[in-house]
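Slide 14.
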Amino acid sequence: VEGVKPRETAYALPQSGLYSMRSDWNKDAISLTLKCGPDGGWHSQPDNGTFDLYAGDRILMPDAGSYIYSGDPEWRSWFRQTKVHQTITLNNENSTYDPKLLYWNTNDDSNILVVENQSYDDLTHRRSVIFVEKRYFVIVDEAYGTASGNVGLHFQLASGKSVSDQKNNTIRTDFPDGWNVFLKTRNTVGKIELIEEEGWISHKYTVKESRPAFCFNTVKKSSTPVIRFVTVLIPYNQKRSDIEVKIKNEPKNKVISQMRIEIIENNTKKNIEYNL
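Slide 15: predicted structure.
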């Protein structure tokens, strides 16, 4: 008996901290699933804010996996690290669990999710994810608090070739056919450095393989209230649009409660607004 496709394409499960957005229920759909939930115990990893990205029946930005649970504490610890997930760290240290859902809105045009995690005693991570026209994503990451040190925004790609551009702060997968993903990040507050990191992924228990991993790093001073990264995340099949993003009402010294974003795609402007 064949099932019936769900009518909805976006789901929020705040108690577990799982949120999903997808373009449709076809095989070639674009889909992003994000985690920002409570401490789940032994099987949980300190990775609030992380996500997986799929497009065209291909996992473009998968989770690292667990690799092993016992017998090899070094590798068990490596795969659990916050910094090997798609999220923010302070000095590459593991984060804690203190999640909040701040905003959730879905319509036929775009989906918007805003979550927050008190990742460190003196640094909170707020992540806004906008699924624009159900074709690509705009992600705004705000790290705010009195902390000082290296604030890193980490991303990992599927195993295979990748291309990075340190001058323009871009990374992408490089599959010869089918779907790929392109990612461009900028720090709107200060300087940014694109660093290639050690990357591993485990699809099967005790089996691992290398994969591309990167960090957009910036130095935060205790006198700097907030660090803000703006990322354009574009899954594409063969041809990719040229997309630029600007926050129109960006404050310098605090997080944004009323977001106003201007998106320019191939010389066409689009505005998205929401109020927390």
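Speaker note: Helices lie at 73-80.
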